[in-house]
Amino acid sequence: MIAGLVGTLAISVFMVAKAVSGMMPELNTIRMLADVGQRFFGTPEIPFFGWFYHAVIGIVAWGNLFGAAADDMPFGPYWVRALVFSTLAWLVMMLGFMPVAVAGFFGARLGAGVGVAVITLLLHWVFGLALGLTYGRLRRAA
């Protein structure tokens, strides 16, 4: 879970930078997570819960899944494995979460063209790189 935490912190820094810069305001994953959380779990639709769900998904879900799968993946060093893994996580977001968040497949309903898919893929690669580099260092230290 430590590698998942580092990966989640890394992607979060870039998500905040994207928001502060005003880049693609129609893509607000935290707002979308808060909305989905409100609809499915009844939690208030506020940024705190969006960030909470973001952390649980990145640290607990993706972090643990990567830890369970990493040694069985047939691709080079852990950072490469994590990039492949994070690309699969991105596909889950594009084909699963986005439609549930009423944004359509690949965020097509957000009105930003392919930008949503490109930006979210780059963000997932930031997550994957941090996840894999951290996981590899922790494995070597063990």
Describe the overall structure:
The chain is mainly alpha-helical and about 140 residues long. Helix content is about 75%, strand content about 0%. The protein contains 5 helices and no strands. The longest helix is centred in the last third of the chain and has 27 residues, at about 115-140. It is globular and about 45 Å long. The model has no long low-confidence stretch (mean pLDDT about 95).
Can you describe this structure in just a few lines?
Helix content is 75%, strand content 0%. It contains five helices and no strands.
Counted up, domains total 1
Low-pLDDT residue intervals, each spanning 5 or more residues: none
Please tell me how large the radius of gyration is.
15 Å
What is the first-to-last residue Cα distance? 15 Å
Structure classification: mainly alpha
Strand content: under 5%
SSE topology string: HHHHH
Residue-averaged pLDDT = 97
Number of strands: 0
Characterize the biggest β-sheet.
none
The backbone outline, from C-alpha atoms, is globular
Helix content: over 70%
Number of helices: 5
Provide keyphrases for this structure:
75% helix, globular, mainly alpha, 142 residues
Question: What's the arrangement of secondary structure elements?
Answer:
Elements: H1 2-21, H2 29-41, H3 47-69, H4 78-100, H5 115-141
Helix pairs in contact: 1-3, 1-5, 2-3, 4-5
